[in-house]
Design a protein that fits this description.
Organism: [Candida] subhashii
Keywords: Endoplasmic reticulum, Glycosyltransferase, Membrane, Signal-anchor, Transferase, Transmembrane, Transmembrane helix
Shape: elongated
GO cellular component, one term: endoplasmic reticulum membrane
Structural class: alpha/beta
Number of strands: 11
Membrane topology: Single-pass membrane protein
Order of helices and strands: HEEEHEHEHEHEEHEHHEEHH
Strand content: 5-15%
Radius of gyration: 25 Å
Family: Belongs to the glycosyltransferase 2 family.
C-alpha cells in the first residue's frame, strides 16, 4: 500500500511541477509577446517635429511681402485671450492652386456676411511646388480682403495634412477654430450648425463639432456623392476605428471639424500624428478627456485632384491607427493632462 501511496504522491507532485512549468512557459511567452509588440509599436510611433523659426511667421496681401509674427503658440496652460475674432478658418494645402479658389470664394462669402471683420483665414502651405502661396495672396486681394484677414504660412519641410492643421490651430486667434479641406468639398455654410453647438458651451467646456458625410444619420439633409472605391476604403477604415475604440462617431475622417479654445489647448499641443490618421488621434484625445462632442451631417461631394493614393495611404492609415491606439495603451504616448482631467470630471 505504501509504495502505491508514494507513487500517487509522486504523480501528483509531478503534475504540479508540469503545471507550474507550463504556467511559467506561458508567462514567458506572454512577456516575450508583449516585449515584441511594444518594440514594434515603439519603432513605428511618431514624434511631430518642432516648427522652424520662419514657420511661426506669415505673409499677407499688404503688397510689401513682409513676414509678420504669428500669435504665441497655444499650450495646455494657455489662457483664452479675446482677439475679437469669432472664427478662425484653417486650410491645410499642398499643391492646391487649382482647387483652392472654390473654397475661398464660398468661405469668404459666408464669413463676410455673418462675421465681417471678426474672422481670420490661415492658409498653412505644406511646401507646395505649384505656387499655392502666391495664389492665396492674389485671391485675398481679388476678394477685397484687408491685409491680415488671410494669413499664409509656409512650412519649409513637409509635415502632412495633420501637421498643417495642428500648426494652424495652435496659432489661431478665434473663439472657435475650424479646419476645412482646400478643395471645397464640404458646403461651408453648414458651419452654422457647428456654431450653434459651440455657443451652447459658451467656450467654458471643451467641445468638438464633427462633420459627417454619412447620409444614414438621423438628419437626412446631407447628400453624399462618392465613388464606390472610396466607400469601400472608408468602410474598412471605419471598421478598424470601431475595433480600436472610437465607436460613437460614424465619420472620423471628414475634413470639417470645429473646436473651441478649450478643446484646442487640450488636444493639439499633444498630437503625435501628422499624416492622414491624425483625425483619429484628435477624437481619441477628446474621448480620453470626456469632451463634449457632436457629429453633424454636412453636404459633401467628392472632388477631383485628391492627393490620396488609395493603396499606399490606406495601408499607412491602418498601420498608424493601430500603432496610435496601442501606443496610448502601452504608455508610449503619455498625456498626464488627460488622466488628470478625466479624474477631475469623474
Amino acid at each position: 500500500m505504501l509504495p502505491s501511496h508514494s507513487n500517487k504522491m509522486f504523480a501528483a507532485t509531478n503534475d504540479i511541477l508540469e503545471a507550474n512549468t507550463m504556467l511559467f512557459y506561458l508567462i514567458g511567452l506572454a512577456l516575450l509577446g508583449f516585449t515584441l509588440v511594444y518594440t514594434i509599436v515603439l519603432a513605428f510611433s511618431r514624434t511631430p517635429r518642432l516648427p522652424l523659426p520662419t514657420e511661426d511667421t506669415y505673409v499677407t496681401n499688404d503688397e510689401k511681402g513682409e513676414r509678420h509674427d504669428l500669435p504665441p503658440r497655444i499650450t495646455t496652460s494657455s489662457k483664452y485671450k479675446d482677439y475679437d475674432i469669432d472664427i478662425s478658418l484653417i486650410i491645410p494645402c499642398y499643391n492646391e492652386r487649382k482647387r483652392l479658389g472654390k473654397m475661398l470664394d464660398e468661405s469668404v462669402e459666408y464669413l463676410e456676411k455673418n462675421h465681417q471683420g471678426r474672422y481670420e483665414i490661415l492658409i498653412v502651405d505644406d511646401n507646395s511646388k505649384d505656387g499655392t502661396r502666391d495664389y492665396a495672396i492674389e485671391k485675398a486681394t481679388e476678394l477685397g480682403l484687408p491685409p491680415h484677414i488671410m494669413r499664409v504660412v509656409n512650412l519649409l519641410r513637409r509635415r502632412g495634412k495633420g501637421g498643417g492643421v495642428c500648426h494652424g490651430l495652435l496659432h489661431a486667434r478665434g473663439k472657435y477654430s475650424i479646419f476645412a479641406d482646400a478643395d471645397g468639398a464640404t458646403k461651408f455654410s453648414d458651419i452654422n450648425q457647428f456654431i450653434e453647438f459651440m455657443d451652447d458651451a459658451q467656450n467654458k467646456e471643451p467641445s468638438i463639432a464633427i462633420g459627417s458625410r454619412r447620409a444614414v444619420l438621423a438628419e437626412e439633409e446631407a447628400v453624399v456623392k462618392r465613388s464606390l472605391i472610396r466607400r469601400f476604403m472608408m468602410l474598412g477604415l471605419h471598421t478598424l476605428v470601431f475595433v480600436f475604440g472610437i465607436r460613437e462617431v460614424d465619420d472620423t475622417q471628414c475634413g470639417f471639424k470645429m473646436f473651441n479654445f478649450e478643446a484646442v489647448k487640450r488636444i493639439f499641443p499633444h498630437l503625435h500624428n501628422e499624416k492622414w490618421i491624425f483625425d483619429f488621434e484628435v477624437l481619441l484625445l477628446g474621448e480620453y478627456q470626456s469632451m463634449r462632442r457632436k457629429e453633424i451631417p454636412v453636404n459633401w461631394q467628392e472632388m477631383d485632384g485628391s492627393k490620396i493614393d488609395l493603396a499606399r495611404d490606406s495601408i499607412e492609415m491602418a498601420k498608424d491607427l493601430i500603432v496610435t491606439r496601442l501606443a496610448y495603451m502601452m504608455k508610449i504616448y503619455k498625456l498626464d493632462e488627460c488622466g488628470q482631467l478625466k479624474k477631475a470630471r469623474a
